[in-house]
Amino acid sequence: MSAKTFVDTNILVYSRDASEPEKQRVAEAALQELWKERRGALSTQVLNEYFVTVTRKLDPGLNPDEAWDDIDALSSWEPLAIDYHLLREAFHIQMRYQLSWWDSLIVAAADATNCEVILSEDLSAGQNYKGIEVVNPFAEA
User: Fold this and answer.
1) Which domain holds residue 22?
2) Domain containing 115 — which CATH number?
3) How many domains does the chain have?
4) What is the pTM for the complete model shown?
């Protein structure tokens, strides 16, 4: 994978989920590659979802300081802020593709950050939205 890649929340979460060791290994490897090649992108939505999930839903989870350290590091990817224009684009994507609202925001953010790939377990692998291909790293593993 050499294209700019938008990372969905579930990939970040699995990289910290000790209860899913195989998915954790795959997610960590995918993120390491994106760090190394400086191709990762994400949004503030992803960071919000990540913080809540890893501090409240994982068992064992992260404490808030650990989760914030991850977010602080990921801030170097310059997360896209969610604004009215992105919301409007997500609405159009939702109507066109019949996606959930949250997935529509992911696609809109990936488009706004000029990504060619969305790394996600939630969206349908192989699907193409606005010229952006969905890749499920766990299906390939």
Assistant:
1) 5-140
2) 3.40.50.1010
3) 1
4) 0.95
Residue 141 above 60 pLDDT?
no
Label each residue of 54-87 as H, E or C.
Answer: HHHCCCCCCCHHHHHHHHHHHHHHCCECCCHHHH
Using alpha carbons, list the distances in angstroms from residue 68 to 71, 72, 105, 114. 5, 6, 22, 26
Q: What is the biggest distance separating any 2 CA atoms in the chain, rounded to whole angstroms?
A: 40
Q: What is the pLDDT of residue 140?
A: 66
Express each pLDDT in 46-98 by its tens digit.
999 999 999 999 999 999 999 999 999 999 999 999 999 999 999 999 999 99
